[in-house]
Design goal:
By secondary structure, the chain is mainly β. The protein contains one helix and ten strands. It folds into two domains: 1-44; 48-127, no CATH class.
Length: 127
């Protein structure tokens, strides 16, 4: 993985060697991430618009489709480990999503499972 940062230390570009995927991140003036763009080699699904609702800590909690239907929900432990609830997920018809923002809005690196906390990598299991 190769990362690129802007003058404010924000992660603006990431290249993953394993998948040859390039991911770009855009931010607003206050530093909050607005969007994440990824190169896709191949896809069997049509692109769709999703909305992410965060709580007061910046945790992305609910993902909704353009129609307003919830298709994914997340809960976290105090240090940020994601709480998996397969029964609720299946019963409510929620699906797996590809959003990389996790605890307090930090990007979770899929290779290391650490959260990128702007100036360091953070383990959600140890705090």
């Amino acid at each position: 993985m190769i990362g690129q940062y802007d003058g404010d230390g924000r992660h603006v570009k990431k290249f993953v060697h394993l998948t040859e995927e390039t991911i770009r991140f855009t931010y607003d003036a206050s530093g909050k991430m607005l969007a994440e763009y990824s190169t896709v080699i191949a896809s069997v699904e049509e692109a769709k618009i999703s909305y992410l609702t965060s709580d007061h800590l910046g945790n992305p909690r609910v993902l909704t489709e353009q129609s307003g239907k919830v298709y994914s929900r997340r809960d976290f432990t105090p240090f940020g480990e994601e709480i998996r609830t397969p029964q609720r997920t299946e019963q409510l018809g929620y699906s797996v999503d590809a959003v990389k923002q996790k605890f307090t809005g930090y990007e979770r690196d899929s290779e290391s499972e650490f959260d990128y906390a702007k100036a360091r990598y953070y383990s959600n299991q140890y705090g």
